[in-house]
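Input/output pair, single chain:
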Amino acid sequence: MAVTDAQNALLGEITCGSLFKKLQEIWDEVGESDEERDKMLLQLEQECLDVYKRKVEQAAKSRAQLLQSLSDAKVELSSLQSALGEKSFAGIPENTSGTIKEQLAAIAPILEQLWEQKEERIKEFSDVQSQIQKICGEIAGSLSLGDQTGTPGVDESDLSLKKLDEYQSQLQELQKEKSDRLHKVLEFVSTVHDLCAVLGMDFFSTVTEVHPSLNDSTGVQSKSISNDTLARLAKTVLTLEEDKKQRLHKLQELASQLIDLWNLMDTPPEERRLFNHVTCNMSATVDEVTVPGALALDLIEQAEVEVERLDQLKASRMKEIAFKKQAELEEIFARAHIEIDPEAAREKIMELIDSGNIEPAELLADMDNQIAKAKEEALSRKEILDKVEKWMSACEEESWLEDYNRDENRYNASRGAHLNLKRAEKARILVNKIPALVDTLVAKTRAWEEDHGISFTYDGVPLLAMLEEYAMLRHEREEERRRLRDQKKHQDQQHTEQEAIFGSRPSPARSVSVGNKKVVGPRANGGSNGTPNRRLSLNAHQNGSRSTMKDGGKRDNTRPVAPVNYVAISKDDAASHVSGGDPVPTSP
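Output:
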């Protein structure tokens, strides 16, 4: 009202009434008729009515627009609440009383706040979905190294926190899967690196052939984690492991061949040490071989060349190797006192090698079998041979004892006499055991022959025949000794009778100068003094066969196979070798 009054004051107090009064004055002055005046008043009223009508229409239209804006605002508010998942929002009036403009004024700031929240929510959704899209692309392999994904479309109809949580949960799962895949990729790459190192292969070219992002120049997060990359890495690892297994098998075969050839040709340790890197994995498993370059191709080729070289050398040295094994075989037979024909065996080896009808390996294997059988046979003869050695040693002592007992000066106080007395005492004990030893030998020899079905020979002579001949000669010797004792007794009896008839006479002088007396010393095999020793008829033959033995298995060729004397001389018999005029010692 104050504004209207101010405007009226400016118009000089112009009002509808003053204007109508002014119009009547003009009509009066002009002289307008009443009809004209009524007509003009009617027209004036119509024009006023039109003005009011237009104003009302404008006001109604403005009200309709405001109502539509209010309705749209309410719809938008509801849509935003629904999209954002906000069922209730602080600041929204609970009642809708008040004018339209008041209601619009109350909704406007809430709408603005919800729009800002919507923009922020859309950005969050876009970030999460972008990351999800990128990881999915990396897993699927559709993204190359350095590629960027486009902005994903955000569904604005659902921007609720629940939906955002779902996307974030999905993102976390994908991130975990990406981490697991990345860890698996790095494990594969590390395994490929170790295998390439052992196999002597180029790791960089091998791993980049699977995927360019797997080289060392790219960061960990930039490496491909796709299904295809994992599959190709797994295939590469399997291929390298199979190569490692095959190479190790090949290397172990070569190492075994090298060791066999070295042992065959007595290769010195210095030359063997050059291939320690080959033989060190002789019994290793695949997982135990981790040294870089241990299974490189050049190393295997080097071992193959060495095996080929040794094979050629073996062929050229086959005769030397075969003769060496033949010498070993002959030595075993010599130690076992088994008679063989070495010249014929060597000639046969020469014929086989020169003819080429047998492989060198087969020949050596056959000789190894012969050596093994010879060792087995020697082992079966060992017990009997040990007793034969004791028997022969006892016979040698028997021979020495007989020579000692024949020595008339054995009791003289000369240098070494006490040693001879001790030896004679031991020799008598040993000689008394000979019969039991011979009986044991005969029993064991017969048992051996029954088990083996062959005759037991000693340097080509049947041992039982030797023992039987020894027993026979021993018996003959006993008979001879009894005859000599009887003859001696008869002679003594006649001498006594003559003394009784003709009187005693001094015995002929039997003293011998000290310088001419014989002193018996410790001898391995004493010579005879007086009557020649009796020996076995086959003694010369046995001594000749033993002279061909090696140092480790031969006996002294001067040592007889059969005993020289076969009867031990007891202390009582020793006196019979002393003449009646000689003094008899009180002790041996």
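The first strand starts at residue 457 and ends at 458. Residues 34-84 form the longest helix (51 residues).
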